[in-house]
Amino acid sequence: MPRTVISTASTTWQGDLPSGSGTTTLETSQLGTFPVHWKARAEESEQGTTSPEELLGAAHATCYAMAFSNGLAENGTPPTSVDSSATVSFNIGSGGITGIELTVTATVDGLDETDFQRLAEDAKENCPVSQALKGVDIALNATLA
Prior knowledge:
The protein is α+β, with helices and mostly antiparallel strands.
């Protein structure tokens, strides 16, 4: 029987966009509150601050790794390890989020390159975050270690 799990995050913002700032809190996990401001999003990332794109990248890399691990296990070739990252491109002024590049390296015994690439692509197409981001080009670079 399907069930819905709810996750919550919140942001408080003060001021206008260019000079304002705020904090984003991971409410469900209670893992922390992180500062956010326009400069970290549009100019350069600063240690200790985050951006919507970085948070989106973290969500996508995590979701992808989970989906790929599951697909590999369902194939009868469970992974020893899966390392994934997501690079999110943000076009300031027009376009917004214009693309995401998923990069994955996985150690999987007993799997050939063709099946590895097929399963990697399937995970990219079908992980829930990829499904939510269908309006954005998502590229995949997959390496079988």
